[in-house]
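Practice record 12: protein with beta-D-fucofuranose.
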Amino acid sequence: MLKKSLAIMMTVMLGLMMVGCGSSGKDGQAPESTVKEEIKENIVVGFSQLGAESDWRSAHTESMKATFTEENGYELIFEDGQQKQANQIMAIRTFIQQEVDYIVLAPVTETGWDTVLQEAKDAGIPVIIVDRMVDVSDESLFTCWVGADFELEGQKVTEWLNQYAIAINIAPEDIHIVNIQGTLGGSSQIGRTKGLRDAVETYGWDLLAEMPGDFTRTKGKEVMEDFLNLYDNINVVYCENDNEAYGAIEAIESAGKKVGLDIMNGEIMVVSFDGVKRDAMSYALKGKIACIAECNPLHGPRVQAIIESLEAGEQPEKFYFVDEEIFSANETVKTLNINGKDYQVVHLTQEIIEQRYQ
Ligand code: GYE
């Protein structure tokens, strides 16, 4: 059985039964008091978040904090790793010392977790991995994982691009792409980059360059400025998240160029991932971002469901992939077929945006 932290709530009801003013009590005894002790067991969750680089990450943190509240029967210990694996390892070691009931880890990179996860296992603390994955030699080192299929997200965006390119009749070799990658070594970067590279190979597009933008707006802008200085024929910018896309758009517009889908007439097309904020969707509605593969950050309730099933003695699925959409305001591409499965493209309208962000 798991250790529980005891949050002892003392409800002290002083039943002072005063008999007469200044009296020492009934029959001369001490005042009668009733101490009622209610013992409520809160489940202690130590959550090592990797950082605060993007809108996606803020929504993810928010979802965890809103779920693991005292009202819901939890105590959440939150640690921000600030993009450093060493900080996350330190946080996990602290959680082990604190004898938390569960460790939740959103790992910055995939590799390098074996030792610390073995320590958690030896301490008998289940570890739930969220968002990016861990690449460990022994999968029994974590209980389960919940997150997105990042490679599929990449395949959706590139298949959308492929169909769009065919529809506007542009030759594959005339598609000149730059890739602003996410944080190198994290699963979302690895999967999305792979999705692009595979499509480049399959369709024969021209991949000019790849550089990490660390999933931030600032770095996305810097990288795009460098790309624009180096290449004068870029017509597609593959941004591995929306924050990088905002930065890239800023750089393109400051350079006096136009973002949009009309790449036959000199516009530069931006595609990206996440779709968490209204801002990103509004950009998509205007065609400033041509297409966005959704990445859903609302993992709090999913992790809660996993913990509840573990508490009930059940064994949750080892890997739980979240279903996600693909958005574009442009109606040219309607359906994507990837590995034999159809995905409808959600054609954005103001109404759809209002519904999603009430
Ligand atoms: O897409 C990006 C972020 O790993 C899915 O990390 C996550 C990615 C997300 O900061 O915005």
